[in-house]
TrEMBL record:
The lineage of its organism: Bacteria, Pseudomonadati, Pseudomonadota, Gammaproteobacteria, Pseudomonadales. This is Uncharacterized protein.
Length: 51
């Protein structure tokens, strides 16, 4: 079974999506796992960032 590591390969020229993934992986995911941010709040944050 694969495990989530929070790491992704670097892709030159893709800074917006990569920085968003870093934000989610390093900052938001631990808060979600600890219960500080609810899943629907994360979904809203991601929709704002993507659009």
């Amino acid at each position: 079974m694969a495990q989530w590591t929070g790491l992704e390969p670097a892709t030159p020229g893709v800074t917006g999506r990569a920085s968003q993934k870093v934000l989610i992986d390093l900052i938001l995911r631990p808060l979600i796992l600890k219960g500080f941010i609810l899943n629907h709040q994360l979904f809203r944050l991601m929709q704002i960032e993507i659009n």
